[in-house]
Amino acid sequence: MKFKILILALTCSVVGIAQEKKLWTLEECVRYAEEHNLTIQQAELDLESVKLDKSDAIGNFIPSLNAQASASSSTGYSIDPTTNSFVNQKFFNVTPSISSSLTLFDGLRNFYQLNRAKLNAMAVQYQSDDIRDDIRLSVANAYLQILSNRETLNVLNAQYRATQQDLERTNELVENGVLPKGDLLEIQATAANQEQQIVAAENSVLIARISLAQLLQISDYENFDVVDEGYAIPDDAVLEITPREIYEKALTFRNDIKASEANVDLAEKDLQIAKGARYPTISAFFQYNTRYSDNARYPSTIDPNTQQIIPGAEISFKDQLWLQDGFAYGAQINIPILNGFSVNNNIKRSQIDVERAKLQFTQEKLNLETDINQAYVDVKGSYKSYEAAGKTVEARRLSYDYAKERYNVGLMNSFDFSQAQARLDDAEATLIQTKYDFIFRLKVLKFYYGIPLEEW
């Protein structure tokens, strides 16, 4: 019997461990998102696709080589391809061939295409890294949202426990005739309202967890949760750095800036390719071909003794391939003279694209400077809001303690006491919101300054 109980206990322990929630740290969430997020996976596919462009550009320097073969059968009066004479009979022939060509000069467009493919791969890599940066920030924001909602829930639970104590004390005073029953009803209403707030807060925590899980492409929401790392107000030393200094440093590593700069180089390379179309194109070619016909024979001979014509023997397939083969090789030049203004128009379009890319690059830098200045102002504003919220909580708590003392001695009715408690609840909720708002905004500003997310 004891053995069975031991086995049952061990089984329950194993099941409990299997069903235990995995608690994720912020670093684990970020790394998992980088490996499983669909947007990042699509960016990786784009990168693999542009790598093929480089392979195509390299292939332009390699001679082409193609093999061809055709087979035909004809009846009636036609030309025998093996004798080039008209015959009226049925014959079958095969004409295999091998051809090769190589571009010798095309205005250096092949070299420009290769350099463009390399630049395009760099640009797409920068874009992929920029997407990763955005995903990191989204994960961090969702992660902090869970902690914020959970801390709000903890505060509400603590307030509800305090209200339960007030409810028990008020109930005793009402039963002893010290307080009217209306005070008890008011406290009960306050407790019921807090229960509703707790349910809403629990739902907020659940929704925040689901949002982060979806961002990580995790479908097991029930067993997904994050580590409560207890974020305190971080070091705000970055605020001692001017926005201009943050901007100058951001220009050196921000992937969106690098991608925009690479687009300028791509546009300039496209302009070189377009200008290359003005030059002649020189190419070389080589071709080998042979043929076979089922009517091919060796030439007829005359018997010296009888003077009779001896028909020629049929030529075998192998011998025909060697006897009737031939080579062709040479070079050709194509000089553009007039092509409906297409060359000049393409050059002008490319010049416009260069100017457009430069303007976009300038705009990206202006946007970055604006974002950094805005982030700097937001951090300072959110910190002031946090400080103000902290002072409000202190004042509301003192007011609540004073109201509680007056209520306990019968100098304040339950309605006014409930209002004092409600004001304290609102102040503490605002403090939590402003705290995590400041934490996230400060992290964003540090991110602009180049501090890795793992060091948050």
From TrEMBL:
Which InterPro entries does the annotation name? Answer: OMP_efflux, TolC-like
* GO cellular component terms, A-Z: cell outer membrane; efflux pump complex
Q: Where in the cell is it found?
A: Cell outer membrane
Gene3D superfamilies named among the record's database cross-references: Outer membrane efflux proteins (OEP)
Would the keyword Amino-acid biosynthesis be found if you checked this record's keyword annotation? no
Q: Which controlled-vocabulary keywords does the entry list?
A: Cell outer membrane, Coiled coil, Membrane, Transmembrane, Transmembrane beta strand, Transport
Q: Which residues form a coiled coil?
A: 153-204
* Source domain of life: Bacteria
Gene Ontology molecular function: efflux transmembrane transporter activity; porin activity
Q: Per the similarity annotation, which family is this?
A: Belongs to the outer membrane factor (OMF) (TC 1.B.17) family.
Q: Which PANTHER family match?
A: OUTER MEMBRANE PROTEIN TOLC (PTHR30026)
Name this protein carries in UniProt: Outer membrane protein
Species source reads Galbibacter orientalis DSM 19592
